[in-house]
Write a structure and sequence with these properties.
Radius of gyration: 17 Å
CATH architecture: 3-Layer(aba) Sandwich
CATH topology: Rossmann fold
Number of helices: 5
Order of helices and strands: EEEHEHEHEHEEH
Largest sheet: 6 strands, parallel
Length: 210
């Protein structure tokens, strides 16, 4: 058995004796600053429904980031931007969920992405997105996100990306989504992304919610 891994008992989607690394860390980044955002609710649900061998952490610093200024993208990097880069660097993978505004990404979220360009932390990093917009909407934001992720060299894990429209009445107490089908989908997406994040370590866990 690989060091740092364990054999697990069967659970949904797992085969008995499957070797699973102890921890995979996914950073969850919402593109919304709204308290009642369905995008943020979707990512809270990922954190709650992810398999037990995945630690999914929601980034909470979007509103604190200053406007991007290339003159400050060096030795005097603002603390909030430096913190963002540390969070990305320490994650095995990153999952995004963003609303669309005026046909593209919200300005605050594009600002966050701008702060990632100079550091290179997303270069080669496995990433995925969840699109929770209603059918026929959200395509502009998704396309722009894919363009930026390509520019910074992130590795989009297509099998972990999901389009899952969310009705507002699905959001329950604690700001998480209660729909069982949605929860199963995002659990599978988290498993796919996490396994891609550690594939280079020589262990690839099977999928299945914890």
């Amino acid at each position: 058995m690989t060091a740092g891994a364990r054999a697990v008992a069967p659970e949904p989607g797992l085969t008995e004796g499957t070797t699973v690394p102890d921890h995979h860390r996914i950073l969850l980044i919402s593109g919304s600053t709204r308290d009642a955002s369905t995008n943020t609710a979707a990512l809270r649900t990922v954190a709650e429904a992810a398999p037990r061998w995945v630690t999914a952490v929601l980034y909470g610093g979007l509103s604190a980031l200053p406007a991007f200024n290339p003159d400050h993208d060096g030795a005097d990097l603002p603390p909030a931007a430096a913190g963002l880069r540390r969070e990305i660097a320490s994650a095995d993978a990153v999952m995004f969920c963003t609303p669309e505004y005026a046909g593209t990404l919200p300005g605050s979220f594009k600002n966050l992405l701008d702060w990632t360009v100079g550091g290179g932390e997303l270069d080669g990093k496995p990433v995925a997105w969840i699109n929770v917009a209603n059918q026929g909407r959200g395509g502009g934001a998704q396309a722009t996100l894919e363009t930026v992720l390509g520019y910074v060299g992130a590795r989009v894990v297509e099998q972990a990306c999901r389009r899952l429209p969310v009705a507002r009445d699905w959001v329950g107490a604690g700001g998480v989504i209660t729909d069982p089908g949605f929860r199963a989908e995002v659990a599978d997406a988290a498993a796919e992304l996490a396994s891609s994040g550690r594939a280079s370590a020589g262990t690839r866990p099977a999928t299945g919610p914890g």
